[in-house]
Write a structure and sequence with these properties.
Pfam family, one: HHH
Organism: Phaeobacter italicus
Family: Belongs to the Nth/MutY family.
Function: Adenine glycosylase active on G-A mispairs. MutY also corrects error-prone DNA synthesis past GO lesions which are due to the oxidatively damaged form of guanine: 7,8-dihydro-8-oxoguanine (8-oxo-dGTP).
Number of strands: 6
Radius of gyration: 24 Å
CATH superfamily of the largest domain: Hypothetical protein, domain 2
Order of helices and strands: HHHHHHHHHHHHHEEEEEEH
Catalytic activity: Hydrolyzes free adenine bases from 7,8-dihydro-8-oxoguanine:adenine mismatched double-stranded DNA, leaving an apurinic site
Largest sheet: 3 strands, mixed
Helix content: 25-40%
Length: about 350
DNA sequence: GATTCGTGGTA
DNA sequence: TTACCAAGAAT
């Protein structure tokens, strides 16, 4: 008769042995072999990667990470960049407050810390855009401090390892406690990356590969057969659908009328087309009087908490039009669709293929 | 504690 | 097609 007390306890050593053999090769990562030789990661690159990876997949981040580090190799370079250049380079990655806070943080580090990142959790968490997870991740990975990271991967691994059925986010403190108990004194940075790699490649949300998991023996959910149900989460609210108008206008030379969106709120600080509010019944009020023609197709886009359907209208921009407020005229050859957030780029793509 | 804040991949 | 999910932070 097997009971829970006869279950072996999970140990970090088992996981680290697995990590030494299976660690993913990531652009910002120092391999466990190199790390063992005394090679340290660049805190700037760890910070940048961690911010980009917030709620974002590794696959989506890779190209952005390469472009950012090529264009701005150090935190001082980034701190000296123009706001619009950074926002444009971030365009398409989403959660644009990250880009605004990234720049704020770079400038604080450059100006108040001599271009050197704080090497402790308490120092890091004071910085813009660095919360509990990212402060723990940077201090563990970049400085090998004994901090415990708690991201979606770790939550899932711990919920399964200990068969915890309390739904998130209520279960968070309990999961953090379990994760902390497993954090070793030696190689805490590799351990943090190992748990996250395990969650990303073995202990996945659907179809976890329990048969090849280094922690299969001590896993309580595997024993109970509940792995795929965990972690439990409180149900999400349904997404409403909002409507809106956007207005594409260019003059005879091919220059476009765009606007800088306000710093706060949705797509804050990003470039976009002039448009209406987004709600159930938006008013169709173009930025100037003209013969506005509606394009046949609509832009459909889904944000975190609502669906959006945009009707796109087109008109010729009068020669000599003076941009008002946040509007700006961008010369034909200065306009890069890649500077636009995806929903705005979809409207441009619609025009291009009209 | 609940809400806001993007996007692309996947089943 | 829809819903879920991803190395969360700020308010």
């Amino acid at each position: 008769m097997r009971d829970l007390d006869s279950q072996p306890k999970p140990h970090s050593d088992t996981l680290l042995e697995w990590y030494d053999q299976h660690a993913r090769d990531l652009p910002w990562r120092i391999s466990p072999a190199d790390r063992a030789q005394g090679v340290w990661p660049d805190p700037y690159r760890i910070w940048l990667s961690e911010v980009m990876l917030q709620q974002t997949t590794v696959a989506a981040v890779k190209d952005y990470f390469h472009r950012f580090t090529t264009r701005w190799p150090t935190v001082a370079d980034l701190a000296a960049a123009e706001d619009a250049d950074v926002m444009g380079e971030w365009a398409g990655l989403g959660y644009y407050a990250r880009a605004r806070n990234l720049l704020k943080c770079a400038r604080v580090v450059a100006q108040d810390h001599g271009g050197v990142f704080p090497d402790t959790y308490d120092g890091l968490i004071k910085l813009p855009g660095i919360g509990p997870y990212t402060a723990a991740a940077i201090s563990a990975i970049a400085f090998d401090r004994k901090e415990t990271v708690l991201d979606g991967n770790v939550e899932r691994v711990m919920a399964r390892l200990y068969d915890i059925h309390t739904p998130l986010p209520v279960a968070k403190p309990e999961l953090k406690e379990k994760a902390a108990d497993l954090t070793p004194t030696g190689r805490p940075g590799d351990h943090a990356q190992a748990v996250m790699d395990l969650g990303a490649t073995i202990c996945t949300p659907r179809n976890p590969a329990c048969g090849i998991c280094p922690w299969r023996t001590p896993c309580a959910a595997r024993l109970a057969g509940t792995a795929t149900e965990l972690p439990k989460k409180t149900p999400k609210k349904p997404k409403p659908t909002r409507l809106g108008f956007i207005y594409l206008a260019r003059n005879e030379a091919g220059d476009w009328l765009l606007e800088q969106r306000p710093d706060k709120g949705l797509l804050g600080g990003m470039l976009g087309w002039p448009g209406s509010d987004w709600n159930e019944d938006p008013a169709d009020r173009p930025p100037f009087d003209a013969d506005w023609q509606e394009l046949g197709a609509e832009v459909r886009h889904t944000f975190t908490h609502f669906h959006l359907i945009l009707r796109v209208k087109l008109a010729q921009l009068p020669t000599g039009y003076h941009p008002q407020g946040s509007e700006q005229i961008i010369a034909r050859h200065d306009f890069r669709p890649s500077d636009l957030p995806t929903v705005m780029r979809k409207a441009f793509d619609l025009w291009k293929g009209r």
